[in-house]
Design brief:
binds adenosine-5'-triphosphate; Rossmann fold; binds magnesium ion; single chain; 38% helix; globular; alpha/beta; 219 residues
Length: 219
């Protein structure tokens, strides 16, 4: 985040995620939010060790970071941060937001971008109310998730802190991409070409290793 314009304006959008791998829906949303709120930068923030249990072996932070770089390098308003991947221990969004606000100084304004699935789960995150205090939350619709239940899920007071926007819908997920690679299906047009080449070169997702529970149940 060493962009002069960002430091001057003290405004920034942050897009957190596992990005395993980053795909076109992430990019589409980021660009929509950037334009809509006229922000100088969207900072993609790949998580370090995800605090929420995942049902598959997450790729290394370095691979996820490199794919995010490859996907975003053509957009001068996009940047990728190493903040969470270089921080030991679980990645908590609240720690990241506080750190970025400190860096930006007095009057900093953060926009934290989430898809509908993520915002509906925010109460399960570490210090959800502090997150809602530190950043303006931007919720983007996602096929299969109903943002109409936001009030019910968060309570009206909390929900009032979230801005829901009507960004274009794209039914793409990293899960879909991992699955397709595993099955040998094409992932063309789901993520930028250099990301596809990197996945092939590194042999990522060829065989997603599923973790097994002690009783042998695969989940
Ligand atoms: P996975 O399938 O592994 O969970 P994902 O596609 O959901 O991957 P994440 O890295 O988990 O990607 O998500 C990062 C952020 O992007 C989250 O806030 C998520 O809600 C949002 N997001 C991802 N894909 C979409 C999409 N197709 N539409 C709207 N939001 C999305
Ligand atoms: Mg996800």
């Amino acid at each position: 985040m060493t962009n002069d314009e960002v430091v001057r304006s003290r405004r920034l959008a942050v897009m957190g995620g596992t990005f395993d791998p980053i795909h076109y829906a992430h990019l589409l949303i980021a660009e929509d939010v950037r334009r809509r709120f006229q922000l100088p930068q969207v900072l993609f923030m790949p998580s370090g060790s995800p605090p929420h249990k995942k049902d598959y072996e997450v790729s290394s932070a370095e691979d996820r970071y490199i794919m995010a770089l490859l996907a975003t390098c053509g957009n001068p308003h996009f940047a990728v941060s190493r903040l969470e991947i270089d921080r030991p221990g679980p990645s908590y969004t609240i720690d990241t937001l506080r750190r970025l606000k400190d860096e930006l100084g007095e009057g900093a304004q953060l926009h934290f971008v989430t898809g509908a699935d993520a915002i509906l789960e925010i109460l399960t995150w570490h210090e959800p109310d502090a997150i809602l205090d530190e950043a303006r939350l931007i919720a983007v619709p996602r096929p299969g998730f109903d943002l109409g239940t936001l009030d019910e899920t968060l309570g009206a007071r909390r929900a009032s802190k979230v801005t829901v926007i009507d960004a274009p819908l794209a039914e793409i997920s990293s899960t879909m991409i991992r699955r397709r690679v595993e099955e040998g299906a094409s992932i063309r047009y789901l993520t930028p070409r250099p990301v596809i080449e990197y996945i092939n070169k590194r042999g990522l997702y060829r065989r997603t290793v599923r973790r097994e529970e002690p009783d042998g149940e695969t989940f």
